[in-house]
Amino acid sequence: MPKTGSGIISSLLWRAGMNSTVTIPFWLLILLCVLAAWAAIGSLLIPSVRWFLRRRVSRVIDELNTRLQLRIQPFKTTKRQVLIDRLLYDPEVLKAVELHSTEHKLSRDEAMAEAENYAREIVPSFNAYAYFRAGYAIARWCARLLYRVRLGYSDETGLSKVDKNAGVVFVMNHRSNMDYILVAYLAATRAALSYAVGEWARIWPLQTLIRTLGAYFIRRNSGNHLYRRVLARYVQMATEGGVVQAVYPEGGLSRDGKIRPIKLGLLSYMVLGFDPDRERDIVFVPVGINYDRVIEDRSLLLKLEPAPVKRSFFFAIKTTLGFILHNFSLMLRRRWYRFGYAGVNFGTPISMKSYMKKHRIDFRKMNDDSRHEAVERLGKELMSEVGKVIPVLPVSLVATVLLEDGVTEMEEGKEFSELELKVAVQRLVEKLENLGGHVYIPRADQEYAITVGLRMLTLRRLVIKEEGMYRANIKEVPLLRFYANSIEHLLSK
Question: What is the DSSP letter of 311?
Answer without folding.
Answer: P
